[in-house]
Amino acid sequence: MTAHTQTLTLKVDGMTCGHCVKHVSTDLAELPEVAEVMVTLNAGGTSDVVVTLNDDVTDEKLAEVIDEAGYTLVGVQGR
């Protein structure tokens, strides 16, 4: 019942350090639709958060998780 694997690149503002990366990675990985998270930190700028999905998830749900972690989703690439 799961869809094919999909990879999205989330553009996230506000991350400045390894702690930020860990926080966002952990929170996104808790979503059942997320199989893997890889972050390329751009401290003080827009970081790339690559998520591999094993099922569909809305941009709104991803934005909510990132917002609750204290950061801002500014774009989604790969849809």
List its traits.
4-stranded antiparallel beta sheet; 79 residues; single chain; alpha+beta; Alpha-Beta Plaits; 28% helix
Write a brief structural summary:
This protein is α+β, with helices and mostly antiparallel strands. It has two helices and four strands, in the order E-H-E-E-H-E. It has a single domain (6-77), classed as Alpha-Beta Plaits, CATH 3.30.70.
Helix-strand blueprint:
Blueprint: E1 6-13, H1 18-29, E2 34-40, E3 46-53, H2 59-68, E4 72-77
Antiparallel strand pairs: 1-3, 1-4, 2-3
3D architecture notes:
The structure is a single chain. By secondary structure, this protein is α+β, with helices and mostly antiparallel strands. It has one domain (6-77): 2-Layer Sandwich (Alpha-Beta Plaits), CATH 3.30.70.100. It has two helices and four strands, in the order βαββαβ. It has helices spanning 18-29, 59-68, and strands at residues 6-13, 34-40, 46-53, 72-77. A four-stranded antiparallel sheet has the order 2-3-1-4, covered by helices on one side. A hairpin with a 5-residue loop joins strand 2 and strand 3 (46-53). The longest helix is centred in the first third of the chain and has 12 residues, at 18-29.
CATH-scheme architecture: 2-Layer Sandwich
Number of strands: 4
| Main sheet: strand order | 2-3-1-4
> Kindly, what is the distance between the CA atoms of the first and last residues, rounded to a whole number of angstroms?
20 Å
> Number of helix segments?
2
Q: Please tell me the total number of domains.
A: 1
| Annotated CATH topology | Alpha-Beta Plaits
Helix content: 25-40%
Task: Identify the overall geometry.
Answer: globular
What structural category do the secondary elements indicate?
Answer: alpha+beta
Order of helices and strands: EHEEHE
| Highest-level CATH class | Alpha Beta
Uncertain residue ranges = none
* Average pLDDT, all residues: 94
Radius of gyration: 12 Å
Strand content: 35-45%
Q: Main β-sheet: number of strands, strand sense, barrel status?
A: 4 strands, antiparallel
